Amino acid sequence: MCKSFKCYQTGRSICKTMPGLSGWSRDGVSCLAKHPKILATLLSRGCDGAVRIWNLTQLKCIRIIQAHEGFVQGIRAHFCGTSFFTVGDDKTVKQWKMDGPGYGEEEGPLHTILGKTVYTGIDHHWKEAVFATCGQQVDIWDEQITNPISSMTWRFDSISSGKFNAIETFILGSCASDRTTVLYDMRQATPLKKVILDMRTNTVC
Predict the structure, then answer these.
(1) Strands (E), the chain
(2) Model pLDDT for residues 73-85, shown as the tens digit of each residue
């Protein structure tokens, strides 16, 4: 299982480790996300704008959602496992039901937020109904509000990834295209510390 998660960086190569999982994406897999409650459930986002939900026990895809036009840039499950969030090249943030539509219902997002710029990543708070997006800046959102409740930046070209700390849950880390890694305090809506690395960081875990 560890081998399959290491292989996600190369997109299609994950299928070589787990042959039963064929047809990951027409254009390769750009990232994986886990279900916070069910270990056998895995979400993948592809370059074709689709999100796929996989049952690892049965080794098959159980649901395909055409989530965005263009690349799906980020995917993150809600901490309670009832829904998940995606961001894409179409400048939208969407929330989806984890279990899919009921009988007679059409597949569609629970909520959609149209932004002003492309979002390159998304993460959800570990305990609160709050999530963060990144792109030209880091935006903090309340799930019930269509505008960010706060925005934070430190003169970057582009922020590629942002993650909430699992222990100090109000601390958010991000990495940018100029080789910087920055910590933010969500309560103060201000940057705390910036570190410039020797090489560019692709993501924050």
Answers:
(1) 29-34, 41-46, 50-55, 60-66, 72-77, 83-88, 92-97, 111-114, 121-124, 130-134, 138-142, 150-152, 159-164, 171-176, 180-185, 190-196
(2) 999 999 999 999 9
Q: Given the structure tokens 């933010």, which residue do they identify?
A: 184
Alpha-carbon distance 197 to 97, whole Å? 38
Report d(CA 20, CA 75) in Å as an integer. 23
State the DSSP H helix or E strand holding residue 5, giving kind and residue range, or none if neither. helix 2-6
Tell me the three state secondary structure of residue 159.
strand
To 10 degrees, the CA torsion angle through 195, 201, 204, 205?
Answer: -120
Global pTM? 0.84
Place of tokens 């980020």: 74
- Convert the pLDDT of each residue in 112-140 to its tens digit: 999 988 999 999 999 999 999 999 889 99
